[in-house]
């Protein structure tokens, strides 16, 4: 009886696994282009297919390294970078982490996620205009150029997050053209420049009543495109069952097991999304289509660099970008020493950054003084920023509390993500009701807030110009402390006489690319070598654990053999590694399978 139960339980688990797999497969959109990311090709067991993620990441890495090489001031760095620009280099991904900086990978992730969303979100997944489907070629070209305009405007407005979102959409549609159209079947070996360049010659399109395909009754369809298309240089794309307009008789289908239109005349399909005949009737042309898609993506990125300039291009991807330096300054009369200390620290940081290879970053100054609303000054020019710092003056006073949280909120709103925010004040917050909103904004932008709080230890405050008549609460700075802890910063209490010494922490905290010890994912991500592909969907964990947050689980697929899994717990993160010490020839520095290979460790 017990054996029957065990057998039954085993069958149920197997059925559940297959049911889950089938459910996940049916979530895939039939009008999807190259599969969006690593996990989608794992899902369909098509490991050698090129994905949108891979094509996009490799293009951004390649062009960013080129731009950095051309703009860097250090000759030795120049020579090192040039060795890893070739996409054939197996170490290009690893070394790009060193030369491009940590913020670069967050920016790339923004683009890749936006690209993948085109296949995953209902508003775009079934719309043929976003995928060059259903012979909506003119509309798709117009949409491409709309994305291009949005990118340019966003970069020039320094709205880099918006620009990355539009770039992900553009790269997806651009790549889909080569896997969904008959461009490759026409024998074209170069990209179609007219897609983004109206002045380049355009190819004619097959009309609605022009047959384009003939029936194909096998999963692999060869020569099912009518020869007249190639002879006339007519462009066409496949129709799908999930989008409008419906497929007319004699037209090509997208094809694959998810596309029901493949059963209508003309049967079959022409997509080259994967190298599997289950999903792509023209799977044998997948590599050619992916190659042209990669070249087209790189060309678009180079054109973007030429349009907005190399500096703006590097800022778009946060290439070797020092954290934005944000000063929130209480300018009440008692703050003379603090303003002087902040001025000296800012000057020291600017001088230090000028001698380093990374970009100088952006600077934001938010002075606040009660009464009156806080204002801000934003600059990419260090010299201009210092002029604003020099113009700061400690004036007048009022009651002891100040509108500090309003100033911090203004600073966070107008500063880029992952900024370093330094608040100088000797007053408690008058606008404590903003605490939750400011905390949420700081966590959303992953910005660290550090408070330098000055208070004389003696009852005599002859310099204080504030007219507070009530005794000051010993807990008046508690909200500042809470905000600093939540954001990963610090709250430092000092006196006016020591503010110059204490302010040196401002300089120490702005080191670009500094690896913290909050999570061992930092070690895993930044000291790993990747072979033949990028990280399989790994996303880094930042900052301190937040109360109420769900547990993050990462499956790091090193290699799967008969050995049992080893479980290791990191700081608020669970990791699962697979050891294979019995594998012949296993070596810590030698890649033996696709995936992540830790260097200088006993893991294969």
Automatic annotation (TrEMBL):
The keyword Nucleotide-binding does not apply. It comes from the Eukaryota. Residues 97-314 form the VWA7 N-terminal domain. It is found in: Secreted. Gene3D superfamilies: von Willebrand factor, type A domain (3.40.50.410). InterPro entries: HMCN1-like_VWA, VWA7, VWA7_N, vWFA_dom_sf. Pfam families: VWA7_N, VWA_4. This is von Willebrand factor A domain containing 7. It comes from Xiphophorus couchianus.
């Amino acid at each position: 009886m017990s054996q029957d139960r065990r057998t039954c339980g085993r069958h149920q688990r197997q059925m559940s696994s297959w049911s889950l797999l089938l459910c996940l497969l049916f979530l895939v959109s039939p009008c999807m282009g190259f599969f969006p990311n690593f996990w989608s090709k794992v899902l369909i067991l098509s490991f050698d297919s090129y994905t949108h993620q891979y094509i996009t990441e490799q293009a951004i890495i390649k062009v960013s390294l080129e731009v950095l090489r051309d703009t860097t001031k250090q000759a030795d760095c120049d020579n090192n970078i040039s060795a890893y620009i070739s996409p054939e280099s197996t170490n290009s991904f690893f070394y790009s982490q060193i030369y491009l900086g940590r913020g670069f990978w967050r920016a790339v992730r923004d683009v890749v996620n936006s690209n993948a969303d085109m296949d995953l979100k209902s508003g775009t997944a079934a719309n043929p205009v976003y995928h060059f489907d259903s012979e909506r070629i003119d509309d798709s070209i117009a949409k491409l150029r709309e994305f291009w305009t949005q990118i340019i405007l966003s970069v020039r407005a320094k709205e880099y997050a918006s620009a990355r979102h539009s770039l992900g959409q553009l790269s997806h549609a651009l790549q889909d053209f080569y896997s969904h159209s008959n461009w490759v079947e026409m024998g074209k070996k170069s990209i179609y420049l007219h897609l983004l360049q109206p002045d380049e010659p355009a190819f004619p399109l097959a009309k609605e009543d022009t047959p384009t395909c003939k029936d194909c009754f096998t999963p692999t369809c060869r020569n099912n495109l009518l020869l007249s298309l190639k002879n006339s240089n007519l462009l066409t794309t496949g129709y799908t069952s999930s989008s409008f307009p419906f497929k007319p008789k004699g037209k090509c289908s997208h094809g694959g097991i998810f596309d029901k239109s493949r059963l209508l005349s003309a049967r079959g399909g022409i997509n080259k999304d994967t190298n599997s005949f289950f999903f792509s009737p023209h799977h044998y042309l997948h590599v050619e289509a992916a190659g042209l898609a990669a070249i087209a993506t790189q060309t678009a990125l180079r054109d973007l660099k030429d349009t907005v300039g190399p500096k703006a291009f590097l800022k778009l991807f946060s290439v070797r970008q020092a954290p934005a330096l944000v000063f929130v300054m209480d300018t009440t009369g008692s703050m003379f020493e603090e303003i002087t200390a902040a001025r000296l620290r800012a000057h020291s940081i600017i001088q230090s950054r000028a001698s380093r290879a990374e970009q100088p970053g952006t600077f934001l100054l938010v002075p606040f003084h009660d009464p009156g609303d806080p204002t801000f000054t934003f600059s990419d020019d260090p010299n201009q920023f210092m002029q604003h710092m020099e113009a700061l003056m400690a004036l007048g006073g009022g009651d002891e509390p100040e509108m500090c949280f309003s100033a911090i909120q203004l600073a966070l709103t107008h500063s880029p993500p992952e900024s370093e925010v330094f608040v100088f004040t000797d007053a408690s917050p008058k606008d404590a009701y903003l605490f939750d909103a400011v905390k949420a904004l700081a966590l959303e932008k992953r910005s660290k807030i550090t408070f330098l709080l000055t208070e004389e230890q003696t009852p005599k405050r002859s310099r204080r110009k504030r007219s507070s008549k009530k005794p000051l609460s010993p807990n008046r700075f508690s909200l500042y402390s809470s905000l600093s802890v939540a954001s990963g910063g610090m709250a430092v209490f000092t006196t006016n006489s020591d503010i110059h010494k204490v302010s040196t922490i401002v300089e120490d905290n702005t080191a670009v690319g500094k690896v913290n010890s909050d999570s061992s994912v930092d070690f895993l991500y930044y000291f790993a070598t990747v072979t033949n592909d990028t990280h399989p969907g790994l996303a880094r964990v930042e900052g301190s654990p937040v109360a109420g947050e769900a547990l993050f689980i990462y499956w790091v697929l090193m290699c799967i053999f008969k050995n049992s899994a080893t479980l290791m717990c990191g700081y608020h993160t669970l990791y699962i590694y697979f050891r294979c010490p019995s594998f012949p020839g296993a070596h810590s520095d030698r890649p033996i399978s696709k995936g992540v290979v830790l260097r200088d460790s006993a893991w294969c």
